[in-house]
Structures are given as C-alpha cells and as structure tokens.
Amino acid sequence: MTQWIRSYALGLLTATLVFAISYWNIDATPKTASKEEYKTDELIEQLESEGYRTVTIDEWKSMQEKNNKKASPPPPIKEPVTTFSIDIVSGTTTDEISRKLIQANIIEDAYEFETFMKENDYSRYIQIGQATLNSGMSLQEIAEAITSK
C-alpha cells in the first residue's frame, strides 16, 4: 500500500512540474488590436472595391418605404359559404357527424370538432332530426344546432 501511495504522489508531482514548465514557457502576452483611425470614405471605397454596396440611412429608409408599399398583403379571398342539411338518426355518433361535416366542407378538422364536442359535453346531447349548417358557423354554433343542450 505504501508503494502505491508513493507512486501516486510521484505521478502528481511529475504532472505538476510538466504543467508548470509549460505555463512558464508559453508566451502569455495578450494580442491587442492595433488602433487605427479609418475615414468613412476609405471604408466605403474598400467595401465597394470588394463588391459590396453602401447606402446612407436616408437611402435605406426610402428603400424600406418602397418595399412596404410594394409588399402590402393581398386582400383575403373569401371562400363561398357552403350550406348543408344533416339528418341525425337514433344512434348517430359524434364521429359519424364529423365525417359528414368534413365531406360537406362545413368543418376542416374532424378531430378538433370531436374534441370540442366531448370537452364541452355536447356529445351526450345530440338531437335526433335535421339541422341546417353552413361553413361560416363556429364549432360552438354547430354544436348548439345539432344538440339539445
């Protein structure tokens, strides 16, 4: 055991000496950037010679204004409202209703409709009969039209 501890201590001493010698032999002077004053004209000339284009703040603002005028969003396209009359018979499930509504382009996402019906407790109150729905209705309005809640 004593031999092992001595060997370990000798290894630590050797490692410390190696690091110390390396530390003292490395040139640790920090590299500082030379502080030279450049004129704006020299900088612009250098950039333009390398293929870059420089603009003043006023030119930049006028370019931004032109781009904003050109990039105005197009007017929203209004989709035609689709009307659908759904017949609900005894035993019709929310899943069947959502499939019918998807086929008629009344709703876009069947899962979202089914989740809405279950979370708001409409699925228990589906009313037997006929309901007229259109694609402009919200999920809330559709649920109220087909249920007795």
UniProtKB/TrEMBL annotation:
Gene3D superfamilies noted in UniProt: Endolytic murein transglycosylase (3.30.1490.480)
Superkingdom field: Bacteria
Protein name: Aminodeoxychorismate lyase
